[in-house]
Amino acid sequence: MLKINQNYQKLPGSYLFSTIGKKVAAYTQANPMKSIIRLGIGDVTQPLAPAILQAMHQAVDEMGRAETFHGYAPDLGYEFLRNAIVENDYAARGCPIAADEIFVSDGAKSDSANIQELFDQNSKIAVCDPVYPVYVDSNVMAGRTGTYDGESGMWSDVIYMPCVMENSFVPEFPRQTPDVIYLCLPNNPTGTTITKAQLQGWVDYANQNGALIIYDGAYEAYISQDTVAHSIYECEGARTCAIELKSFSKNAGFTGVRLGYTVVPKDLQFDGVRLHSMWARRHGTKYNGAPYIVQRAGAAVYSSEGKAQLKEQVAYYMKNAGVIYDGLKEAGYRVFGGVDAPYIWLKTPEGMSSWEFFDLLLTEANVVGTPGSGFGPSGEGYFRLTAFGSYENTVEALQRIRKM
Ligand SMILES: Cc1ncc(COP(=O)(O)O)c(C=O)c1O
User: Concatenated DSSP letters for 139-176?
Assistant: First the structure.
């Protein structure tokens, strides 16, 4: 008789967005005349840029003719896309990354969840707290995180690196040495990041300790400060200690199109084995490539029209971020993020819990945000608002919050 993977039973359940949904549904049912503004989820709202649409249309037409039809894509992705990635995201920034070190995929979520297949069962992982929950959950499913303590919200075998107001949301080197360090910068949900000099410190630390950094750069397009690195490979020595994950979701609105890539440098060797060979093997066995139409759309992100149009799109969201950040500050809140990321992170007032503040915001301002505690134990007492709504809704939401 089949025995299931019991590790799945250990997952405490992703109550966050379902609880939010239920609370909002109950409130709207009881108050049908109220208009709710949603600044909770991290999904984009602007339509695909014209340059991307055009590329997709062309690719669709190619698929309809025998002489230009494309079947299975190459394992690592089409060269036209990998070359565009290398040229624009790496060579232009002086990062020594080659096209055959890029693995094109259907997004950073699956890559960030799947990458743990390369580590030994007993590897110790370290995560920023709070952070994107996929890193911990995927390791839970693999049986690598020990036991869960419902009281503290922590796993016994995970190293947590608190990112809180007191340390300016900068992760500190943990007391226990990890084997794998997940860094999401700029961070979801805090919207904060670290300087290139601080990141260099992490690269040095990883190299000195024989650790691997999984660097999630999903929000790289939102970086505005010159002191912040756009890629971990801007740091010296990163080729021997870091894998970088990138997504087309937030810079180009591909959340529903699905495209991302992972960089695995050939210099990354552990136990005398190249992680590049392992990931290539995994990719070849378990994945049949992102669709041709989508990869053509991805290449259009790097065209001059695409770049100009997407710069505007990012600016649109960052204008919203400014409205939220300034509005909350003026209303007396302690506010963070929103400068290099589309997320604004606020300290809940008067010692309220994240969920208490959620209820207050829903009932008093009819605005939906995300309780910080849903992203890790150190997120308790914080709250996330996103800049992905429309400008008009964002302005209206802040007017309401200021009146509370
Ligand atoms: C930190 C982080 N990484 C990855 C993703 C998912 O990216 P993708 O849409 O490419 O799967 C998200 C989405 O919210 C995210 O916040």
Answer: HHHTT-S--EETTTTEETTEEEEE--GGGTT-----SS
180 lines ligand 1 (CB under 6 A): no
pTM over 0.90: yes
To the nearest 10°, the Cα dihedral for 293, 298, 300, 302? -160
Q: Where are the domains of the chain?
A: 13-47+305-403, 52-299
Q: Indicate which residue's Cα is closest to atom 10 of ligand 1.
A: 107
| Ligand 1 neighbourhood includes 247 CB (under 6 angstroms) | yes
- For ligand 1, the distance from its centroid to the CA atom of residue 31, given in whole angstroms, is 33
96 C-alpha to ligand 1 centroid (Å) = 25
For residue 45, which amino acid is it?
A: T
> Ligand 1: distance of its center to the CA of 402 in Å?
31
The per-residue pLDDT for range 236-293, each reduced to its tens digit, is 999 999 999 999 999 999 999 999 999 999 999 999 999 999 999 999 999 999 999 9
Query: From CA 79, how far away is CA 103, in angstroms rounded?
Result: 11
8 A C-beta contact, residue 232 and residue 196 = no
Please check whether residue 126 is in contact with residue 135, taking contact to mean a CB–CB distance below 8 angstroms. no
What tokens appear for 13 in the block? 């359940």
Token pair listed for 252 = 């180009």
- Cis amide prior to 162 (ω within 30 degrees): no
How far is ligand 1, taken at its centre, from the CA of residue 33, in Å? 34
Return the residue matching tokens 């394992």: 75
The domain defined by 52-299 folds into Aspartate Aminotransferase; domain 2 (3.40.640)
Q: How far apart are the C-alpha atoms of 116 and 138, rounded to whole Å?
A: 7
Q: What is d(CA 182, CA 150) in angstroms, rounded to the nearest whole number?
A: 23
What CATH architecture applies to the domain 13-47+305-403? Alpha-Beta Complex (3.90)
For strands 343-347 and 335-337, give the pairing.
antiparallel
3-state class (DSSP) for residue 276: helix
* pLDDT per position as a tens digit, 152-210: 999 999 999 999 999 999 999 999 999 999 999 999 999 999 999 999 999 999 999 99
